[in-house]
Amino acid sequence: MGVDAAVPLPKSLKDFGDEKYWDDFFRASKGQAFEWYGSWADLPQLLQLHCGLRPDQQPSLQILVVGCGNSALSAHMYDAGFTSIVNVDFNRRVITEMLRLHVRARPLMRWLVMDITALQFAESSFDVVVDKGSLDALTGEPEEPLTAAKSLLSEVKRVLRPGGQYVCVTLAQKHVIGVLLETLRQGWEICLHQVSEASRDPSSPLQPFLVVATKTNSADIPLVTLLTGDVPHANSLVDVVNEENKLRSEARSAGYKTSLKPDEKEIESKLQDIYEQLHPGRRNTVVLGGHYPAVVMDAKPHSASPTYRSAVFLVPKGRAHEWLFSSEEGQWQVLESAQAGRLILVMLDTHQYPGSLSAVQDELSPLVKQLLPLDCRDAPNVPYMTTNDGLYRRTVVEEIESPMTGTIQVEDVVLDADKSSGNKVGNQNCFRRLVFRRNPNLIQSDASLVLVKGPSKDKDRPSTVREAGRRHGSGKKKGKAKDSSNSIKQDSAEEFKVDHSHLVSKYHEAMIVGLSLIAENLEQWVTAKEPIRALVVGLGAGLLPMFLHNHLPIDHIQVVELDGVIGDVAKRQFGFVENDRMQLHVGDGIEAVCSIARLSTHISKNTGGTLASELANDLSGVHCNERTIKTEGKLHILFIDADSQDPSNGLSCPPAEFLEESFLHAASDALVEGGILAINVVSRAAAPHVTSVEVLRKVFEEVYDLEIDEDVNRVLLALPQKSPAEHSPGGLQAAASTLGKLAARFNSWGNGPSLKDVIRTLKRLK
């Protein structure tokens, strides 16, 4: 396909690794797909004949497309019947554009911003990895370093299941094929196919090939197969394959004793010399025993005196991809927590290690010895550490697959009594948790379970806040449904139910306590009988909106959740209800907020040209598809509690788009005078916290912070106007008291947060 002259072409292959180049490219392309490596018409026959890929396979193939760009390849595959596709690209602009383009017509496809050299997926997650030109882009010119290309191929090896296939469309330049064949050697069957003559570009001497690499998980080193026709650079490609097959044949005939890497004894000798002494601030990566990736770190200068001269930290299987263990900043945090002079961080992901951690320790001990400081190598008790969350017992209540979120688990857990302050069984605490497999280290929702005697009977909530009596209870139910929130039982007359008055998550408490900043306004609205409207973006288990519903005088609570499966789980397992006061909408939270801002601005200014309107138009391809959000007025309360599908930058909550200035302007437009915005920000990296505060300070009159967990979890509160609490005679303590009295007139506070205690931690940032 020809390229419009307005679209910037790369000056060199280096441009392919530059995000700014791709920003300019995708902006100029205006949504038009450019197929650098041929069209879809060339590939279906190859996929079926040479890859054995058919859309009717059961179970359906789990496919990952790396470096998807704005190619139509994924859409064509989806329309051909391959619907379980995850697309990733490091460019946020193109992912946003592709999501908007395909979310309606192809709802099962997922689009994620991610670095393809450090994929945020567990090992053995996919049946097929599709790569159309990404390996070429990362390899660059022949003289350039191969680090990025090797990282991509290593990630492909990790995320593919045994029997899985790496399907790579490439121009098959000598240095590109060379690094591929070298990296995918033992245990990989590789075949190169010439793509159809129909796609040949006569102006280029390079033509696309399809490389199919099948992961066998065996010790064999199969020969490479090359199927080619009359292609200009075929001779050089034949030479590369022949040279590789010669090497593989020698290894096979030698019974695989021929070393394809430097001698391990030589490496060990060098390692011993390198690690004899501590070198403050040094960080090196190594591989132990051929299958344990490890990071060796010496404490930075001026660090606190270490408790241990050296220590080993075992990263559990399935967690090596998390920011804390995969990023350099996170790894330094682990070292500080371990209080070690030297920490050897060992990843257990890439190898089927022995059944117990003690067996792992026995296997690792002789391997890590060479990495210890010289004066520790004969020590009998180098400490081994790992994560410990105080779990006494875990029971998986339900596991369900969501096309959008992936695997969702509901767990009932019992913690040691000294680990938490939840409801106790004997000397333990019982909780129900919502966990996403894609981010197992982040508990999405944590609910306290309370013991109830005999059959529970939910009472009706009043349909409006100011209905006489303000009776206590949950929402009205339509018919009877089995409630499975009773997996922990004492006897036939006792069961555990979710306690909606107890906010286990400290950030939920902080968001509620933050309403003290507008307590005087809330009281005035109640007195004036002005309907109070709240919007919660991100449902989770529904615990935050349920607390708002049961304990505060809010007339209309709208909850927006992108994944309808999560809504079903919240109702079935956590007691979330819908009624006249509270409704759940399946859709995009940004679009919901922008729609309210756009409509409110249109009503007040009779114009659709505001920034909020423009943003809403930009995102108009993503709509709430169950019912229309009530937009008869602005919001008094806006809570953002959404999970990020792209934790690669260290930001677990919210998605980065919610912290962009354009969205925050829309959020400000959507709030009434005297309203409040609260955002849950979770990041182990420092940069997102700093940036989010800076952007909020640009948009809002006042900004406050509630630090929850040592800079990891913070609740940011923003007001379009000055807070009456901050400037009243009684200050924040009086405001918290006002909020408590207002809530008490509505309903019992139950096990709700201590308003006056939490408000003491509030800090004003602007």
UniProtKB/TrEMBL annotation:
Pfam families: Methyltransf_11. Keywords: Methyltransferase, Multifunctional enzyme, Transferase. Residues 64-168 form the Methyltransferase type domain. CDD domains: AdoMet_MTases. It comes from the Eukaryota. Belongs to the methyltransferase superfamily. This is Methyltransferase type 11 domain-containing protein.
